[in-house]
Amino acid sequence: MKKKLVVMCMLFITCVVTSCSGNNNGKTEADNIQTQTFPQQYRYSSEHLRIDLQEITPQEVSWKNGTATECSLDYEKVGRVFMPDDGSNTLDAEAQMISSNAVSDGVSESFFTWGLDSCTYTDLEYLELNACLKTDRFYSDYNLSEYTDSKEFTFASEEAAKQEIYEIMDSCGIDLKKDFTCETYYLDHEILQQQEEHIDMDGNQQEEEYKTDWSEENDTYLFYFHHVYSGLRDFQGNSFWQESAQDLNAQITVMYNKKGIIFCYIQNLYDYTSMNESESLLNFDAVMQSVIEYFEGIVDGADREVISAELIVDHMKDGKTLIPVWAFQINEKPLNDSEYQYELRVNAITGKIIVQ
Question: What are the boundaries of the signal sequence (predicted)?
Answer without folding.
Answer: 1-19
